[in-house]
Amino acid sequence: MPQAMTAVNDFVVKFANVNGSGSASANELFARSILRMGVPVSPRNIFPSNIQGLPTWYEVRVTEKGWLGRRGGVDLMVAMNPQTWAQDVKEIEPGGYLFYDSTKPLPSSAFREDINVIGVPLTAICNATYTDARQRQLFKNIIYVGALSVLLDIDPAEIERLFGEQYKGKEKLLDSNIKALNLGRDWAKQHLDPASVKLKVRRADNVGNRIFVEGNSAAALGAVYGGATVCAWYPITPSSSLAEAFAAHCKRLRHDKETGKAKYAIVQAEDELASIGMVIGAGWNGARAFTATSGPGISLMTEFIGLAYFAEVPAVIVNVQRGGPSTGMPTRTQQSDLLSCAYASNGDTKHVLLFPEDPRECFEFTAGALDLADRLQTPIFVMTDLDIGMNHRLCKPFEWDDKRAYDRGKVMTAAELEAGKNFGRYLDVDGDGIPFRTYPGTHPTKGSYFTRGTTKDEYARYSEEGAVYVRNMERLQKKFATAAKIAPQPLRYSSPKPTRYGVIYFGSTSPAMAEALDHLEADGNHVNALRVRSFPFAQAVEDFIHEHDKVFVVEQNRDGQLRSMIMNEFTLDARKLVPVLHYDGTPITARFIAADIAKKIGQFKVVPFDKAAS
Amino acid sequence: MTFIAKPKLHHPSLVKNKAGFTRRDYEGAVSTLCAGCGHDSISAAIIQACFELDILPHQVAKLSGIGCSSKAPTYFIGASHGFNTVHGRMPSVATGANLANRDLIYLGVSGDGDSASIGLGQFAHVMRRGVNMTYIVMNNGVYGLTKGQFSATADKGSISKKGVSNPDSSIDMVSMAILMGATFVGRSFSGDKHQLVPLIKAALMHKGAAFLDVISPCVAFNNHAGSTKSYEYVREHNEALNRLDFIEGREEITAHYEPGTATTVEQHDGSLLRLRKLGEDYDPSDKIAAMKRVQEGLASGEVVTGLLYVDPSPKDLHANLNTVDAPLNTLQTADLCPGTAALERINASLR
C-alpha cells in the first residue's frame, strides 16, 4: 500500500477534462461548495485555444490559510481525459490520489505504485440511468462531484443550495441535478471507504465577507461605476468576456427606468484599429470610453495610441495580457506587454499603466482609470492578465462612495469662454502640464480648435518650428510627472527584521508573492516588499531601491520588462536589480518565487574570494 | 498644413442667413492646396450648403484622415471643432464621436487613398453601421502629397503623369457604399456646383450614413490626357441622372416643375427630395436598379452622377443601439453610477 497523503483544508485537486464536455460548471460547483463551507479556494482554468475536443484542466487549491496563488503540484487528480492520462498520472505528488472512471479495466501499468487509486464506474452508472447521449455526458460530471463530496467530506447540503440558486425557477433541472449528485454519493457510500482518502474539507470561517469573482467581470463593473458610456471592442482571448460582462452589467444597471433606453453604447468593431479609433472619437467628444483587448490587439492599436498621446485625448484600454509574442499562447497567462504599452507608438511616447492585483483592484482601477484619463487627457492602460481576468478569485468586496463625483478634468465651459477666459488647447495654465480642452459644440464663436496628430503650438495651430515642438514635448513630460503623483501609489510590506534585500512585484503575482514572503521569512530570509501599482513610477520606488543592496524584481515575462522600465526611468546601478522570472504561461507560484529568491540570497551570502583573502 | 488665418472683417452688407451668419462665417483658413484643385471647389460647396441650411457653425464636427483631401476641413467652418485623425481611420473616430454626442452634425472628409486603400475596411463598416454622418470622398484617383502615385480608384488602363498605364482594377466607391448599406449615396463633380451643393445639403440632413463620391481633379498630378479623373474627361463623360432640389421640412415649394419632369421622395423627417429628371427615368429609392445603373455606367465609361440611391426611412446606429435621447457626453455621475446599494446587492450575489 502506498502512503496516503493526509491534509485538512490544504490540498490541490486537479480535474482533467475534455473541452466542451460540460465539465466547467461541475468543477466550479465543486470549488464553490468548499467556499460555502468557509474554506478559501483558488481555482484556475487551464484551457487550450479550442472549442471542443482538446484537453482542459481545472485546478482547485483548497487553502484554509487563504493563499490564493497557484501552489503547483497535484494531490488529487480527477482524470477524466484518456488523451492526457499518462501526463496527468505523472503529475500526482507521491502519496496522492487518482480518481478515475473505472468502467473499462485498465492494465496495472497505467497506474503508479506510489499513489492511491480510486475507481468509480462513472460511464456505467450513467449508461444504466440515462438514455440520452447529452445527459449521459453532462451528468457524468455531476456524478463525480457527488462521489468526491463523500470522499472529501464536502457537505452535500451546500451543493444542493448552490443548485437551488443556479436553477431557481427551473425545478426540472434542479431535480435532475440533485438526482445525479446522489447517484454519485450513493455509489461511493456503498462501494468506497471514505476513510481511505485522507484529504478532507472541514468547515471553517475563513472566507468572511469576501466575494468570488472573475477579474474581467470586475473590471467591466468598474467601467459601469466609473461612468463609461462608450465601449468599442474586438473579440480576443482572454479579454472578450470583459466586454461581454460590460454588456451584461449595463443591461441590468444602465437602462433608463422610464423609457427603457440605454445610457451606454457598445460596438463590436471590425478590428482593434477601429475599436480604439471609436474610443478616441468618443473621448474627444466628451464621453467616457474604453476598450478591452490583449497583446496582439495592442500591436494593432499602437498608431492610434500615439495619436491620443500627442493630440491629448482621454482613452482607457484594459489589456488582459496573455502569452506573447505574436499569437503566442492565447490561453495562457503572462505579464509581457509592459514595454509595448508603456512606450507604444512611434516617436517619444510614454503612457500611464495601472497594475491591479485581483478582481477588486480591477474594479477600482478601471473606474479610476476613467477619472485619470479625463484628468490627464491621455490613454490609461489597465494591465490585468488572464490569471486574474478569467479565473474566479476570492477578494475583498467591491466598494464605492456615493459622494464620489466623476473627475471630468479640465474642460472649459461655454460660460467661461463667454466670460473671455483665455483658451489655448495646449497651454499649460496651471504648471502641471495639463491644458484645458473644450468639447465640440460648446460655444458658437469661441473655443473651437483643430485636433491633429501633427505638431502644433499652444493654441492648436499647426507649426513645425523647433522651439514650439520642444515646448510641447516638454509639457507632455511635465504632465507625465503629474501622472506619477496621482496614479495609485506603491504599497510596502516590511519584514519584521531589518534587511538588505528587497523585492518589487506587481499585478497577478501578488497572492503568490504574499505566500512566498511567508515561506522566506519562516526560513530566515528577510525581505522587504514593494508592490508597484502604476507607471510612471512614484518616487517611493526609487527610494525603496536605494534602501536595499539587492532588489529582486519578480515578473511573469522573459525579458524583465518592469526591471527595464525601472532602469529606464531612474538613474541607478542595474546590478542591484535581480530578475526573478517565470514565463511558461502558467501562473507564478510561491514555491517558485521563494526557491529562486532563497537560492539567489544564498549565492550573495558567499563572500567573494578576494575579499575573504584580504 | 500651414495655418493662414483669414481676415475676419466682413462687409456690413453681406447677407445673413436665418441663423444670423453670413456666408463668410462658414469659411476656414486660407487653403494651401494647389491653385485650381477640385478640393477647394468642394470646400466652397460645403460652405454654401451649410450657409443655405442655416446650420450653426459650431454644431458641425469635421473629421478627416490623412492626405490632401483630409486637409480640407481646415479651409471651411473655422468655428467648428475639427479632428485630423490618422490615415484611413476617420470612420472609426467619427463613429465614436457620434456615439458620444448624437446632436452634432458629423462631416467626414476623406480622399480616395484614405478611403479606398488604407481605409477601405473602416469605410465599409461605417456605412454598414448606419452612422449618422456625411462622408465625402474627394476623389482624384491619385496620391497628391506623395507626388503622383495611382490610387485604388484610378481606372484600369488610365495613364499616370509619368506615362504609366494602371494595371489594376479600380474600386468604385459608390458601388461599395450602396452594397455596404449606406442609406444616401450620390456622386458629383467638383466642377458642377449646381449639382453638388444640393447633394451636400441633402446628405447633411439625411439621418443615416450618407456618402458622396465627388470627382475632384488633381491639377498637379492627374489632369492630363489619358487620365479618367481630369476636368476634361469628367466633363465629357458626366452622365447626370437627376438634378436635386433639397427642401427642408414643410417649406413651400417655389421652384416650378413641368408635369412629368420631377419626382419627389419624402423622407421620414418630413424633408423632401425633389429630383428633376434628366433624360431617363430613374428611381433612386430602388436599390437594385441603382446598383444596375451604376454598373452599366462603369461598363460604358460614363461617370454616372446625381442622387443614386436613397432610403427615405433610414435607421441610424443610435436607433439600433436604442440609446437615450440625451447625448451620452452630457450624462452625469447620478445618471451613470448605480451607487452603493446596487453594489451591495452585487457583492451579495458573488458570495
Q: What topology does this entry show?
A:
The complex is a heterodimer of chains A (614) and B (351).
Chain A: E1 7-8, E2 10-18, H1 23-36, E3 41-46, E4 55-63, E5 74-79, H2 85-91, E6 92-101, E7 116-120, H3 122-129, H4 133-152, H5 156-166, H6 171-191, E8 199-200, E9 211-214, H7 215-225, E10 230-233, H8 240-253, E11 265-268, H9 272-284, E12 289-293, H10 295-311, E13 315-321, H11 338-342, E14 352-354, H12 359-376, E15 379-385, H13 386-389, E16 392-395, H14 414-418, E17 450-452, H15 466-486, E18 491-493, E19 501-505, H16 510-522, E20 528-531, E21 534-535, H17 539-547, E22 550-555, H18 561-569, E23 577-581, H19 590-605, H20 609-613
Parallel strand pairs in A: 1-8, 2-5, 5-6, 6-7, 10-11, 10-12, 12-13, 13-15, 14-15, 19-20, 19-22, 22-23
Antiparallel strand pairs in A: 2-4, 3-4, 9-16, 14-21, 18-20
Helix pairs in contact in A: 1-4, 1-5, 3-4, 4-6, 7-8, 7-12, 9-10, 16-19
Chain B: H1 38-52, E1 60-64, H2 68-71, E2 81-84, H3 90-100, E3 105-111, H4 112-117, H5 120-128, E4 133-139, E5 142-143, E6 149-150, H6 173-180, E7 184-189, H7 193-205, E8 209-215, H8 231-237, E9 238-240, E10 242-247, E11 262-266, E12 272-277, H9 287-300, E13 303-310, H10 317-321, H11 333-336, H12 339-349
Parallel strand pairs in B: 1-2, 1-3, 3-4, 4-8, 7-8, 9-13
Antiparallel strand pairs in B: 5-6, 7-13, 10-12, 11-12
Helix pairs in contact in B: 1-7, 3-5, 6-9
